[in-house]
């Protein structure tokens, strides 16, 4: 639709999906009728679009929602939503994809997700209400100046001050910089800024 010229704000939703995809090609599991599965076309997307989307989803979920860099929304330390922003900068558009567990019965998820997934705990009939609330929050977040956006993101940072690890390193997360990169204090002194990749809480396994 984007390549064919669909306008900014075009929304595509699904009640169920058979090939949901997250970052790095991972599958996203969502029982039919229990999750918000939505993609939104953004024309002339801002550079910080992934942060915009994260703030919008977190605000939709509620005051207790936290953002786990780079693209997960957590409730009580468990993942309630995933975000995937993809686009073609040369063509001036991006698509924000969101999977949000609105009314998911965690027992319906694969066994390996029972200890890591969360749900908003609403009814299936609330999915449309949550969709509209998210679209409103996305519009509002797209209007934020960069400073206000970064502040809004940092207020919900799930990793700040906590030990984290990633492939090739570990340290203590210290929030994000102006480009949305995760800043990490290193054990031997100094710091690094991560611009992509998976980050896990805690030290790497020995």
Features:
about 210 residues, five-stranded antiparallel β-sheet
Structure report:
The chain is of the alpha+beta class. It has 3 helices and 11 strands, in the order E-E-H-E-E-E-E-H-H-E-E-E-E-E.
Beta-sheet strand percentage? 25-35%
Question: Residue ranges: pLDDT <50 for 5 or more in a row?
Answer: none
Order of helices and strands: EEHEEEEHHEEEEE
What is the C-alpha radius of gyration, as a whole number of Å? 17 Å
| Major sheet: arrangement of strands | 1-2-6-5-4-3
Distance between the termini: 47 Å
What sort of overall outline do the alpha carbons produce when their principal axes are compared?
A: globular
Q: Averaged pLDDT, please? A: 91
**Class by helix and strand content?**
alpha+beta
Q: Which sheet architecture does the biggest sheet show?
A: 6 strands, antiparallel
Helix content: 10-25%
Would you report the number of β strands? 11
Give the helix tally: 3
